[in-house]
Every structure is written in C-alpha cells, then in structure tokens.
Design a protein that fits this description.
With 399 residues, the chain is of the alpha/beta class. It is built from twelve helices and 17 strands. The longest helix is centred in the last third of the chain and has 19 residues. It is globular, with a radius of gyration of 21 Å.
Length: 399
C-alpha cells in the first residue's frame, strides 16, 4: 500500500472540515460553526446556499448541463451579453477558472499584435508579488520563486517591475513589449491597491505605445471592491480583463473580457475550452448577476466595507502590539500585522480558537474577504472575535 494519500497532498490542509454552509457561516463535520470571512478566497460572494443561486443551478442541472461548444449556445450568448452590457467590454470568452481567464488574456494580448503584423511584440510587463494562477503560463507571469521552483523551463515573454513603481515599469518598454498585466489590487501579494497615478500612468503608456492594458481582476473584481470591477474606481478603461472567483458565486466559472479592438486576433480556431461556458455555469453566472446588478447591491458592499474598515481601525489601538494598519478597498481588506506576529499563524489561531475564517497573504497581512451580503451584525461578530483572538494570541517565532 502506498503512503501517498488519495487526494494529492499539495495543500497543507487545516482541521476545519466544512460539510455545510448557511449564509455567512460554515458548519463542520461535528456541527462546529465558523463565521466565514474568507469566502472560499473571495468566491462565495453571495454567501452559502443563496436561494436564487441554488434554484438557478438546480433548475439548469435538470434541464441541460453540458453541450459542446461546437453548437450554438443560447445560454452563453445571453450571459456574455449581460457581462458586456455591465462592463467596458465588447466580447467575452467563458472559462472554468481564473487561471484560464488569465491564460486567455495573455493569448488575446499577444494575438492582437500578431494580427497587426507585429508578432515580435509578445512580452507582457508584470509586477513583483503578483499572483496570476498556477498554470505554466501564469506562474511564468510572476517572479515568485515559491510558485516557480521545480517547474522550469518556464514560458518566455514576461518582464517584471515593482508594483506601484510607474517609472520602473515604463523603463522596461521596448520593441518587444505587448503590454502590461497587472492586478488593480494585489490579493495574494498582501491587499495592495494600485495608486491612481500608477494605473492611470500604465493606461497612458499603452495609449502612447499601442500596447494592451491587461487587468487581472480575478480576486478584486465582481463587486469585491464596491464596483463591479475595481478599475472603474480609477477612471481607467482596460483593453482586456480576466475575471473569475465571485463570477459564479461558488460554481467554477471565469471570463476573459475584451474590447473588440483588443480581441481582433481571436478568430475561429485560436482558442477553446471543453467545459467553458456550459449551460450550468452560465445559469450560475446569470443568477449572480441578477443579485449583483440589483439597485443598491454595490452600495451595500461599499457601506459594509466602510463599516468593516472603521471597526478594524477602532480596534487596532487596543491591540497595537499585534496590529499595524488596515489596507484595501470595499470588502477586500487586509490587516497588516507587526512582528513577531505572523499572519498565517494568527489566521490559524482565529480559526481554531475563535471560529473566524480569514486568509493569510504576503507582507504579513491577514486577508479579510467576507461574503458581499454581510450585515452589520456579522461585522460586529467578526470584530469581537478578532479582538478576543488578539487578547490571547501569543506570537510563535517565524520559522
């Protein structure tokens, strides 16, 4: 008998074993309840068991789950049209995941220059601490050794600059540059929002040099920051956007959105996906849009984001030996810790002893990503749990 577990051991899984979800709570095998301020890492935007989303999936599963993309797709056409109508885009390619959406975005940007007769313009400038996915293409788009080690040779065609360093990014532009690939708010990198000057400066450079501004809004998009996409708050119009996570409310779904000009090279035979945009995924996507585009929904996200930030900022002075500051936008917030506190360790402490689920990130930051449907009562409960946790937390020296 092999000692290798049946589920490949690539995740250091914790002892929380959810079997059910109710709104903003997860329930474990033995009935233990957790306040879910992780949302499956920004995926469960409507919480767990949302009746409209649940019904849409049930009805579609009983009607038609999957057909090949060799056939016409009334469901895909309808969902894509709604995505286009709600965003900057003219067209959308539907995927199963964020990494696939980023892969499509990379291909679309390269193909744009190919279609223009400039195949040498294939290098995307990306940014330190970025996270774009786990495929060979998307790990090539980051310079983080922890994601790249042991997987070389990687895909060529990327250059790396410091996030929020406009001058450094512009200095990398040459005759091979295709554009920039950037997260408006870095998630894994530590909830680091782009400065307006940085994102607007990249847009200006793209306009001047004929480059593609490709935004990875997999984590920061879909209502998470208080607008459907984070770039809307910067007054910047991208050429291509990768979207996923919240887009299906928990069902695997993603989209690569683009303007007609940016997507001009994506013609018959250039890209595909067996499952991408299947009727079941589109039903989930439409149900999420139904809720998210309701008048007042995004206003609620902004209001709850403000309230959560206020609560965190008021709590920090009471535990200023552990907490440093709050960062982020909307309901994509980060709580930066002070040494010797370690974010991964503190997240485990809150989870195991206080029933509060959050996610660690870079720069010693705790990611706070609640469902977008939270109410003030959930915020009050989270602040209380955080405060209780901080009161008894003893930092473990970082190994």
């Amino acid at each position: 008998m092999s000692s290798m577990p049946a589920l490949m051991p690539v995740y250091p899984r914790c002892d929380v074993r959810p079997v059910r979800g109710e709104g903003c709570y997860l329930i474990g095998e033995n009935g233990e309840r957790y306040l879910d301020f992780a949302s499956g890492i920004a995926v469960n935007c409507l919480g767990h068991g949302h009746p409209h989303l649940t019904r849409a999936i049930q009805d579609q599963a009983a009607t038609l789950m999957h057909v090949s993309n060799l056939y016409g797709s009334p469901q895909g056409e309808r969902f894509a049209q709604r995505l286009v109508d709600a965003s900057f885009a003219d067209t959308a390619f539907l995927t199963n995941s964020g990494a696939e959406a980023v892969e499509c975005a990379i291909k679309t940007a390269r193909r744009y220059h190919y279609a223009n007769g400039n195949p040498q313009r294939h290098v995307l400038i990306t940014f330190n601490m970025a996270f774009h996915g786990r495929t060979l293409g998307t790990i090539s788009a980051t310079n983080q050794a922890k994601m790249r080690d042991g997987f070389e040779p990687l895909l060529p065609g990327f250059a790396y600059a410091e996030f929020n360093d406009l001058e450094g990014a512009l200095a990398l532009i040459d005759e091979h540059t295709a554009g920039f690939l950037v997260e408006p708010v870095q998630g894994e990198g530590g909830i680091r929002p782009a400065t307006p000057e940085f994102l607007q400066g990249l847009r200006k450079a793209c306009d001047e040099h004929g480059l593609m501004l490709v935004l990875d809004e997999v984590q920061c998009g879909y209502g998470r920051t208080g607008t459907l996409y984070a770039h809307e708050q910067y007054g910047v119009t991208p050429d291509i956007v990768a979207s996923a996570k919240g887009i299906g409310g928990g069902f695997p779904l993603g989209a690569c959105l683009a303007t007609a000009e940016a997507a001009k090279g994506m013609v018959f035979g250039t890209h595909g996906s067996t499952y991408g945009g299947n009727p079941l995924a589109c039903a989930a996507g439409e149900a999420v849009l139904d809720v998210m585009l309701e008048p007042g929904f995004l206003d609620h996200v902004k209001a709850m984001g403000d309230r959560l930030r206020q609560g965190l900022e008021q709590m920090i002075p009471n535990h200023d030996h552990i907490f440093d500051s709050v960062r982020g936008m909307g309901l994509m917030l980060g709580l930066k810790l002070k040494d010797p506190a370690v974010s991964r360790d503190f997240v485990a402490h809150c989870r195991d002893h206080h029933g509060l689920l959050m996610v660690a990130a870079g720069e010693n930051v705790v990611r706070i990503l609640p469902p977008l449907v939270i109410e003030e009562s959930h915020i009050a409960e989270a602040i209380e749990k955080l405060s209780d946790a901080a009161r008894v937390y003893v930092p473990v020296a970082d190994e």
